[in-house]
Amino acid sequence: MDTPDSLLTPSAATVSRSDRVFPTLAPAQIARVARHGRRRAITSGEVLVEVGQRPVPFFVVSNGEVQVLRPSGGIEALIITQGAGQFTAEGTMLTGRRALTRIRDIKPGEVIIASGARYRKPAIANVSQFEGAGVYYAASRMESQLCAGDEVAIAGGGNSAGQAAVFLAETAKHVHLLVRKDGLADTMSRYLLRRIEEHPAITLRARTELMALDGDRHLDRIRWLDSGTGVIETHDIRHVFMMTGAVPNTG
User: Fold this and answer.
1) Does residue 178 have a pLDDT over 90?
2) Would you say domain 5-113 falls under CATH 2.60.120.10?
3) Which of 42, 146, 190, 206 is 20 to 30 A (C-alpha) from 30?
4) How sure is the predictor about 145, in pLDDT bands with cuts at 50, 70 and 90?
5) Domain 117-248's class?
6) Strand, helix or coil at 35?
């Protein structure tokens, strides 16, 4: 659907107040937020927040650009375009209300999500031992460089897992996507599913569950269970991405 140019231009009042309403963080402030949040790669056209969504994440744009849009009658009115150092969703997040706007990425980059969420972790006793040393909860440029040329495994079957698989496959030797269900059709967008199926460096392992992590100071190998065959396999994989979602802190 084509959007009239007049509706992609912020009002004069919004522009004149943009520095006050949408302040820009200095590099030191961005770094401080990053220490308490998680980095996430974003792709052009990706919707980060949808109208009616709750909870709404608080995030800072590290690089790239996003648009804050107000859909009405099938037309999207542009409220503001935000770039590096700008943050959004803070008001709705603090009040607990549902999102009133849609936030969409228009320039690939990265955001830092700092909404006080707890990651869902697998029931593996020593998972905390390897966090930051082979176990990761985000797939940013930093992690992609850490595992460049190596095999990696991703646990999860949602869109975040699919996006991570496609992103990491550009630098990793091979990506193993571990999914406990029979497939991804019910949990992932068709666009992502098609990209995963067509990518030669990604293997989808359905009915497979991560069972164990082994290593000393860094993760050295993992074991997974193929529930279809009942076979437990050991693989020398030193990088695992847990993309099984997060639970927001509410109190």
Assistant:
1) yes
2) yes
3) 146
4) confident
5) alpha beta
6) helix
